[in-house]
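User: Assemble these into one structure.

Assistant: Restating your components, then the assembled model:
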Amino acid sequence: MFSGVLKPVMIADPATPALEPRTEGVSFWQVAGRAFSRRWLNLIACGHIACIALLAVFVPFIANGHPYTIVYPTKAGHVRHWPLFATLSALDLCLLVIFAGAVAFAFFYRRFGRTIVDREDRSAARCETLFIIMGIVMLISGALFYFHGSPLNPNDYRSYEAMIKEGRASGALFPPVHWSSSEQEPLIANRTFEFPSADHWLGTDGIGRDALSRLLWSTRVVMGIGFVAEAIVLIIGITIGAMMGYFASKVDLLGMRLVEIFEAVPTFILILIFVATYGRNIFMIMVILGLTGWTGVARFTRAEFLKLRKLDYVHAAIATGLPLRRLLFRHMLPNALTPIIVTATFGIAGAIMSESGLSFLGVGVEPPTPSWGALLNEAGNPAETFRWWLAIAPGFMIFLTVFSYNIIGEGLRDAIDPRTNRVR
Amino acid sequence: MLTYILRRIFLMIPTLIGMTLMLFMVLRFAPGVASGSALSSGGEMQSSEARNEEIRRAKERLGMVDKNGAAIPMWKQYFVWLGKTVKIDTYSVSGVNIPGPVVDLGTSVKYRKPIVELIKERLPVTISINIIATVIVYMIAIPGGMLSAARRGATFDHAWSFFTISLYSLPVIWIGSMAIGFLANRDYLAWFPAAGLHVTDTTSHTFFEYAMDYLWHLALPILVSTYGGFAYLSKQMRASMLDNLELDYARTARAKGLSGFVIATRHVFRNSLLPLITIAAGIIPGLLGGSVIIETMFSIKGMGELTYQATLGRDLPVIQATGLVSGAIVLISYLITDICYAIADPRVSYD
Amino acid sequence: MNNRFTFKDAVFAFILILVLGAVIWASAQFSRQEHRLNDVRTELSKLNVLLASGVRTYSTTQAEGVQGVKPVNIRRKNEQGGEYVFYPEAPTTPRDPHGFPDYASGDWIVQNLGSEPAVVTPYIDKDAYGNEVQRPVLETLITRNPETLLYEPYLAESYETFPKELRYRFVLRKNIWFSDRTPITADDVVFSFTTVMTPGIEADSLQSYLKKIEYVKKIDDRTIDIKLHEPYFQGLEVTGQFFEIIPQHLYAFKDVKEYNARTDHLIGSGPYLFDPKKWEKGQQITLVRNENYWGTRPSFDRIVYRFISNSQAALQAFQNEEIDGVTPQPDQFIKFSSDPEFLKKFKVFKYQRPNAGYRYIGWNLRKPIFKDKITRQALTMLIDRRAIIHTIEKDLSSEITGPFSPIVPQNDKSIQPWPYDPEGARKKLTDAGWKLNSNDVLERDGVEFRFSLMIPAQSSNYEQIASYVKEQFKKVGIDVRILPTEFSVLVDKLNNRDFDASMLRWTGSIEGDPYQIWHSNSAKDKGSNAIGFANAEADKLIEDARKELDEEKRMVLWHKFHQILNEEQPYVFLHTSLSTSFLNGRIKNAEPYLVGVNRDDWYVPSLQQKYR
């Protein structure tokens, strides 16, 4: 298992002259990647998604009611506290750990690309590094969730402001958006539905919460639901599709009935009932969106596997006695990936739209968790008192994100499609 | 071909049974089913006996308990429902009695009306919105796709693709809110009505006024349902036209000296339309399901709104009936799509 | 090549067909218009004839009697300490418009019912909408005067209460009949009662109240005796007003299931008639004036109920003068009640009804965190109810201290609401044994102060109040999780006692019976005492007050009960809503009473009448 990392591999050694110039061919994915990057629109879309993902990870440092640092005078002199860092929740820290893991993996990916010459060894090394990093990340996350209590943070911006005014604190440095997603202006002050002002750059909602902060915090819900729901779709869809495509005959017959059943059921009814039965937990919504959307991926996988099973290398693998799981997932699946990836990208866009629709109707995430669809709902009944400034921002964000995913999906499809490449 | 159709219809039956069974079980396990709130206001203050009696009666009406209050096992409940819904009865056609399946969808708990009547009231609404929207989508997407294919790789192609994808990405909830908020709100422009399908007093309207009023009310919902459909259809049209333009007969026509426009409209167009016709059959499921979001935002009483309210209010007969009907229609429309495909393209054969 | 039918030809043919069709259709429309014009002409000539013959357009009431002599009503006590009330003539509304100089009968009143009722048959109606349609068609033995709140005999000409025998005697009037001119007799009263109490009929709540009646006996053709099992303070209301009188010869049934299946069988003795043919499903119900009515002739020719559920569409219809009355949403009310253009054409009313009901947060008293009253008092002090009323409810609610409306005698006006005092609340919590732990959460006996608050889903008001409560509690170290739950699921959870805290509404009444909500017996099984309030002293007060027939003594008991509730704070009593309504300007004499608006008062002067 650790062959790539522990076993010595051949490295380009300047001392031994190469016998003949070694030209490396280009892999399919490199060709596709280059075709994809040629259109600047695709890169912009990727950039947008990367921004949103970074926002989702780092939002506690951007929009928070706690200052980075503050100084309290005590009897023993002035003590410097770091409230923002002290009040990070377990989820915040987990996301940071996952981000660190992703960065580490990217680092090792490129390093192996440069140091290990043999392609097989290189991909093996990359796979193993991936598993190691994933293992470490999961361990740390598990430990974090287990040991980190869920403290309540009673202070918010207004209370810090009061403390500074009274002189009980000083030297506070606040994040750029100094509101948390749930802090309300004092109800008696009636600062609800405010137009954007210097205090609140996008105004306030119906109970005085800062609209910009809620917009930024929604990225977590949206990205989370997009990725996790699609991951569930992929897991279920690929498994069932692969089995159907590979075994054909009876398994295929039964499997297609199952696919048709799930396609025929009105998804919306299922989602509403599940939400009512199991509560509006964010994870349940992810699972439900996953359970209702896997049929498309299953169909594509089945089609690909039906084609692939006739190929020679599959027959050879069966003849040599390769275990079924390895055959399906390590040999056939990578070749079937092309339509699956494209479908998956469109699937994420669809999941985001579905979640926005559900939150808008009032059956999505629990309040006060912000989500762009829920923010649209809070803008009020559009037919009566329409607060358009509260409706423009979240709607536009949904549009940009879904649009980026769609552009990436289209770009991938064009890049992967051999016909488009050939003519170009 | 006929055997293929018969085989597909035969295979539909286990799918329908499986789907209704799954829906049935999910509904029976969901909370709030027999709290009686579908029957009464539910929030009244009642003595415990009154509430128990109400719950017991609700459960009896739904078939969950028998007359003495003992619980009926789930599988038995399902078969009783199945037996009531699909019966083999005799039709009399010009004097001759023919046995055939009769579907009885039951009575709604909330509205106390036969569900068939409810569907008869609401289906035309949903269908009119969806059909008009579909026609508009076709009318715009087909020329767009043709032009994209003709100017492949040029600015128009990229711009049209960009345009349609961005339209597809615009969330309906946003556009709908903005449309109502700016176009139907008395604070801004009040060009359109915000809700419902009719101005309320229609008894003294002539038919023409009635129709105009209906269309005026439908304008915003149709606008909101249309814009998302261009992307897919236009792409399909473009792809199929490109496929046909590479074929020999098109190259022959070009060699003969015919202009591009003539080739596109007279020769290639009809052949490229074939895939789009089969796609049209795929629109049928959407006709029945409707769009819950659009109907809720505009307070239109269509099929989507019926399903939504029934699910929230636990009106079990309605949920099961619409599930059965929409499932059957989805499966039938897939079959029609496949048949159209076989008819349109003689190279495709299922036997 | 030349004879080919091309695409251009197809288009041409299509246009031709269209033009032909348009011509035919246009001529059909013209002929329709001709018909309409003819109808209008005949109507005009009829009117001319009428005017020429000098017909009076209003009719006198039945109760004129001898010129200038008003009938004398008797109200006195009898030997048993009960009452004897005799009204020789049926009581009219206190602001009877029939004598006004510009009074005119005629016109229609078009009102908006929020939603189409499922059933309008008496007793088995399922919701307030069916009830609303029934009210002009059915009548009861006694009614309540909207001004004095006293009971007055209506279908009965007299009633007498015998407290020692738990008996009530009603004597029907001589000249009263149903809409088909069949006289109302004691048989009909007995039949009405037995219909409600038939086992299997779908009138559970009504049955649970009428269960208190031991028998309804016919003494003679006009006299009925009703006896209760035990003394009950609402005895007169239960016996005389709870069930409407329906004609036996039209409602008789053999099988309960057959009665339960009737959805539109509505016939009574009231001033309006219901015709099932006039129920346009999905659109409206029309009630027509009963020309055979035995009592005071009402003003309007017709009452039309439209079903517009979307509040915004209803307001638009109201502004287009398609409906005459609407209950506005808070946002709409604030916007239009100060709009001078709006006020020129329409009337705006804001008033407090005693049965408006109240909103509350109920703590599940079985949970250890809510066990003691000091904690609960502290929780109430953390919620600024006045700020909620001002900011979230936009001043369309008023403050309350208990389950009674602030304007009824049952409410103890001397009780002051708990102040909004977060510091005092913190102190109380510390007194109750709560301490902040390392998570910044209050803890007592190893249990952290975290709970979930259940609210009805899809209601922005509830969500806003709940979010506010969550923020307030967070400041002292209490963690609240908001659970918006669908209504049917919420009712289920309340029934099964599966909740920590819940925010909801109860409706109210002029003098309500707190037994169902506050008595410990109702905490069992699925009774409405979902929080499990069990206070022995409160139990005794409730039982005593229910039996106490003397009103003054009863109020003292209610006030004591109110004080216990205020002390124990099993609910946080948030507020009670004010009622608002918009009315079309042409309707006169529409100012609301204490109990609400009374349609019997309204009329439209003949020059401003809109419908014929």
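Residues 70-92+138-260 of chain C form a domain with the Dipeptide-binding Protein; domain 1 fold (CATH 3.90.76.10).
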